[in-house]
Write a structure and sequence with these properties.
It contains 25 helices and 14 strands. With about 525 residues, the protein is an alpha/beta fold. The longest helix has 25 residues, at about 230-255. It is globular, with a radius of gyration of 23 Å. The site of pyruvic acid has 9 residues, from helix 12.
Length: about 525
């Protein structure tokens, strides 16, 4: 049998360009995703090399919004084994299953989902794996984590989504999700096995349904190095965006962030996660805990959350209002007129919930209203950017969970921000790994938020951005990792004494040196062998 050979005039740089041409020839985003996934399987160094050079174009394919389509359809687009499935049927032998992973000692970061709330798309069961893969691609691209150190995990615990159970091609276990006691026992065994099998691993919990997201963060955060991206990562990235949004709005209102009033539309893991992060910010900026709490209002599917409501879920109780005793307030415009918030944050999964009336009500109370529709993917956004610009006559300070393009209005072009935890978790992960932190503390998450907030350069400030440009993501992640390491040291959670000896400039240099670069161009500058 003759060996295959590269064509005589093959060059690596041509091939790089060829891949981009092939990618761009596809019109359907999911086909682009499938193409890139195939490229990663064929030549992962080339894939990451292209990704690093084309973040703006490729992140929306590998991550939100298109990764949402990939998850919904994963059983149908599946091509080859990726990541690690741990099934409820593996109970009792989870350690053995984890031990099959090839790079046990090299593994540093796992993203673990149980597929029960993928983005705003609901319970996707075993189809949730691409979210773990997409997050880890961002760890690699944005923070230079070595690909062989990443472990994408999907816990296949069944699904309550009937159309998957009825789908002959569904790749997961065909059973409903377990009751709480069975799931708790599974999670205990899983986390203990993770510690035994992977000695140096940070675990990021991703897209667990809200009750479980809070529960397992509470149960495991002091036992293992773990964090929950939807609660803590989102809290951190939105605090950061609000710091910059408050600076922009204060030009019109003179109001520091600590004097703002924030209305959360959506009170799940993400909404409450952000509310808690803000509470902590307010209290460290001079407010008493009660004053801080009074600045935050939450709304769920039943309206403004008040303390007198019967059967309130545990995670909603802390921010439930005690100062409103009228009939249930369900209309968002009424709620805005009652609260008079300076900022409206959407974490509800309810498309178009911020109608023209809502945006105009925010404008009535604020010269420059802060409106962040943060639900993912883009088709669940509470308001589209062009509408928000038009209805506010260009005054809105805007960030969305999924990306939007700039919008022309009047004589100006306005650029949206992307308020997504993707700006935060790569730096938190890198800093946690390098410092060998025992736990990821609230202080580390808050330090990450400020490092991101203060990372805007002059050009970005002049363009009135609330988040830095994605093209600078490695520089940004290095700054976040630096802040996370120093905070871990301050709290004596770190386990890398050498980093303590380094002056700031040397520590930053070390972080940058540790970032993995795809070696593709050195490996095959000419392919005629
Ligand atoms: N931008 C980012 O970085 C991030 C964005 N997200 C996005 O946030 C969204 C929410 O995630 P998560 O908090 O985990 O999800 P949950 O399902 O736990 O929370 C959704 C919340 O929205 C409320 N809600 C639903 N429908 C309505 C309605 N008609 N009116 C008012 N409120 C409503 C729900 O109310 P009830 O409690 O009554 O059911 C619930 O409080 C998702 O789309 C997710 O993709 C999440 C993490 C990060
Ligand atoms: C961004 C993210 O983590 C989410 O939408 O769930
Ligand atoms: Mg998430």
């Amino acid at each position: 049998m003759s060996a295959t050979r590269f064509p005589p005039h093959f060059t690596n740089s041509d091939h790089r360009q060829r891949c981009l041409v092939q990618l761009r020839s596809k019109n359907v985003p999911l086909e682009k995703y499938i193409y890139l996934n195939g490229l990663k399987g064929r030549d992962s160094n080339l894939f990451y090399d292209i990704l690093l050079e084309n973040m703006q174009e490729m992140v929306p394919i590998l991550y939100t919004p298109t990764v949402g389509d990939a998850c919904v359809n994963y059983s149908h687009i599946w091509r080859r084994p990726e990541g690690l499935y741990v099934s409820i049927e593996d109970k009792g032998r989870i350690r053995e299953v984890l031990s099959t992973w090839p790079n046990l000692h090299d593994s540093r970061i796992a993203v673990v989902t149980d597929g029960s709330r993928i983005l705003g798309l609901g319970d996707l069961g075993a189809n949730g794996l691409p979210i773990s893969i997409g997050k880890l691609d961002l760890y690699i691209a944005a923070a230079g984590i070595k690909p062989s150190s990443t472990v994408p995990i999907c816990l296949d615990l069944g699904t309550n989504t009937q159309r998957y159970l009825d789908d002959p091609l569904y790749i997961g276990v065909r059973r409903p999700r377990p009751e709480a006691a069975e799931m708790d026992a599974f999670m205990e065994e899983f986390m203990e096995a993770m510690r035994e099998v992977f000695p140096n691993l940070l675990v990021q919990f991703e897209d667990f349904s809200t009750d479980n997201a809070f529960k397992y963060l509470d149960v495991f955060r002091h036992k293992y190095p773990v964090f929950n991206d939807d609660i803590q990562g989102t809290g951190s990235v939105i605090l950061s965006g609000l710091v910059n949004a408050a600076r922009l709005s204060s030009a019109a209102s003179n109001l520091p962030l600590a004097d703002h009033k924030i209305l959360f539309f959506g009170a799940g893991s993400a909404g409450i996660g952000v509310a808690k992060q803000l509470l902590s910010f307010f209290t460290t900026n001079g407010l008493t805990p009660e004053e801080a709490r009074s600045r935050i209002y939450t709304v769920d599917s039943k309206g403004l959350i008040t303390a007198d409501r019967k059967g309130l879920q545990e995670h909603k109780k802390f921010f439930a209002r005690t100062d409103y005793n009228g009939p249930p307030m369900t209309n968002l415009v009424d709620i805005i007129n009652y609260v008079q918030p300076t900022a409206l944050l959407g974490l509800s999964t309810l498309r178009n919930a911020f109608s023209e009336d809502v945006v105009k009500a925010m404008c009535n109370h604020n010269k420059r209203p802060i409106i962040f529709p943060l639900s993912n993917p883009v088709h669940l956004s509470e308001v589209d950017y062009p509408d928000a610009i038009q209805w506010s006559n260009g005054e809105v300070i805007f960030a969305s969970g999924s990306p939007y393009k700039p919008v022309a209005h009047g004589n100006a072009v306005f650029e949206p921000g992307q308020g997504n935890n993707m700006y935060i978790f790569p730096g938190i992960g890198l800093g946690s790994i390098l410092s060998k932190t025992r736990h990821v503390s609230d202080g580390m998450v808050e330090a990450a938020a400020f490092a991101l907030a203060y990372s805007l350069n002059d050009e970005e400030k002049a363009a009135h951005l609330v988040y830095p440009r994605l093209s600078r993501i490695r520089e940004i992640s290095a700054g976040i990792a630096f802040a996370v390491i120093r905070q871990s040291q301050k709290e004596k959670l770190d386990n890398n004494a050498y980093l303590r000896t380094l002056p700031d400039a040397d520590l930053l240099g070390l972080i940058q040196d540790k970032m993995w670069q795809p070696p593709v161009l050195q490996m095959r500058t000419v392919g005629r062998l």
